[in-house]
Write the structure tokens for this entry.
Amino acid sequence: MGKVKQDSTLKKLQNNYRLVITNDDTYEEIARFKLSRLSVYMGFSTVLVLMIGFTIAFIAYTPLKYYIPGYGERKSKENLQILKMRTDSLEKAIHYKDQYLESIKKVLIGNTPTLKDTVPLKIEKREISTY
């Protein structure tokens, strides 16, 4: 197979074409455009880039940005961290209170553990000398 020459591809992009818009009933010419493949490509590319730019600007400068997952105000993130710490401390307090109430129930019922609560200490006795 033969190679496609760059000159022929460039010439194809620069070939001029005529786009004529006519009324179907009266065959009256409404509009006439002189186009090339390159100008059509450039036009579509420009429109695409402008639409993407306007969409990004619309989202960035309006309250729609708060609907993007992971995006939020710094103040709300700090408040969330404070609430998490408070929740954790409240959960610990409830857990300790439940343990305390369970141990009181065991004592009142009489289901105390057989282990002693104290450890025997070995204390050496010293003789007290008088002066």
